[in-house]
Design goal:
Layout (H helix, E strand, L loop, with lengths): L4 E2 L9 H9 L19 H18 L5 E6 L2 H13 L5 E5 L3 H10 L4 E5 L2 E4 L2 E4 L13 E4 L2 E2 L4 E2 L11 E4 L16 E5 L10 E6 L16 H6 L9 H17 L2 H21 L3 E2 L11 E6 L5 H10 L2 E2 L10 E4 L6 H18 L1
Parallel strand pairs: 1-15, 3-4, 3-7, 7-10, 10-11
Antiparallel strand pairs: 2-12, 5-6, 8-9, 11-12, 13-14, 14-16
Helix pairs in contact: 1-6, 2-6, 3-4, 7-9
This protein binds 4'-deoxy-4'-aminopyridoxal-5'-phosphate.
The site of 4'-deoxy-4'-aminopyridoxal-5'-phosphate has 11 residues, from helix 3.
Length: 361
């Protein structure tokens, strides 16, 4: 049987060494005689694991001391609510930059809580979408924050520059790009990410928030979404997703041992280039995103002859290449090639695409 490569957008594949380690200590973690998922979150063993995981994430991302790192429930969509509930409280106004389907969903949630100004900087030139430079977004100067999504998982649109927002805090939904490359955390007021792409399994959400943004939540915010409450309780106001937190700690270890985010970024660049270069020169497949905004993590592509879509997917699956179907809202194909996807997986996909195209020509 061929090696299996899972291109799912999330929950996504996790690094093999991480899964093997989790398996080997599943029944007896750290000589406790218990699985880590059976331990109290308040016991010394889990508390030590939790603190180490936070420290590792701080080291990997270079998170400054004036930021809290919160390990939460609720996923990316939970943060679509938590962000306005916590931050939309001074002017009651926020700018939302819509570049695809996830940032659009964030708007529908935020609109329940305040005055949301929508900015749409995606334009199509020669049938390819690209994002106007942030200097042309016309951001407000009196908003409580600016929200954007640097990597649109469905559309495969990535914004590589960090928008300049002056004194207005910048909030980023990094669900599908966090840990794929180094970022300057100090440019952000708040970063959030669901774990199920580059961090670990679903059920865990990471929030990185600058200290001055704590303590200004609406009085009605549920306790489990109140950043100040979560920070005061070391993310243990209620029982955290302990097993997901543990798996994230293994992923952080794996990343550290690999050499950190610059090394990871280079691997990701090479993988994405290999796939996009093939699509670019092909007369059989095409991309709808302009070069400067092509995502390194999610690569949507289309067959010129869409009637071959189901045959493509069937044969890909038979060749061990799983979950390549594009999101139902945009159709086509999508290869999600997060950190855990090895180059060999991307190469196997390119070879399959080549063979499929040759047979159908
Ligand atoms: N934001 C982005 C960029 C996403 O990719 C996703 C999920 N794929 C979400 C938000 C929603 O996350 P969740 O399903 O964890 O609520």
């Amino acid at each position: 049987m061929n090696e299996i490569y899972n291109f799912c957008a999330g929950p996504a594949m996790l690094p093999k060494p991480v899964m093997a380690q989790a398996q080997s200590e599943f029944l007896n973690w750290n000589d406790t005689g218990c699985s880590v998922m059976e331990l109290s979150h308040r016991g010394p063993e889990f508390m030590a694991l939790a603190a180490q995981a936070e420290q590792d994430l701080r080291d990997i991302l270079g998170i400054p001391d004036n930021y809290k790192v919160l390990f939460c429930h609720g996923g990316g969509r939970g943060q679509f609510s938590a962000v306005p509930l916590n931050l939309l409280t001074v002017s009651g106004k926020a700018d939302y930059v819509v570049t695809g389907s996830w940032s659009k969903s964030a708007v529908s949630e935020a609109q329940k809580y305040g005055d949301i100004r929508v900015i749409e900087p995606v334009v199509a030139t020669h049938d390819e979408q690209h994002v106007l430079p942030s200097a042309q977004w016309g951001l407000s100067t009196d908003a409580d924050y600016v929200h954007y999504c640097p990597n649109e998982t469905v559309d495969g649109i990535e914004i590589f520059e960090i928008p300049e927002t002056g004194n207005v805090p910048l909030v980023a939904d990094m669900s599908s790009t966090i840990l794929s490359r180094p970022i300057d955390v100090s440019k952000f007021g708040l970063i959030y990410a669901g774990a199920q792409k580059n961090i670990g399994p679903s059920g865990l959400t990471i929030v990185i928030v600058r200290d001055d943004l704590l303590g200004r939540a609406m009085p009605t915010v549920p306790g489990i979404f109140n950043y100040q409450t979560l920070a005061d309780n070391g993310s243990m106001f209620n029982t955290p997703p302990t097993y997901a937190w543990y798996l994230a700690s293994l992923v952080f270890d794996w990343l550290k041992n690999l050499g950190g985010l610059s090394v990871m970024a280079e691997k990701n660049r090479i993988k994405a280039k290999h796939l996009y270069d093939y699509i670019e020169q092909s007369e059989f497949y095409y991309s709808k995103v302009a070069r400067e905004n092509r995502s390194t993590m999610n690569v949507p592509f289309y067959l010129n002859d869409e009637s071959l879509n189901s045959e493509f997917l069937q044969q890909a699956k038979a060749a061990g290449l799983l979950a390549l179907k594009g999101h139902r809202s945009v159709g086509g194909m999508r290869a999600s090639i997060y950190n855990a996807m090895p180059f060999e997986g991307v190469n196997a996909l390119v070879e399959f695409m080549q063979t499929f195209a040759e047979r159908r020509r």
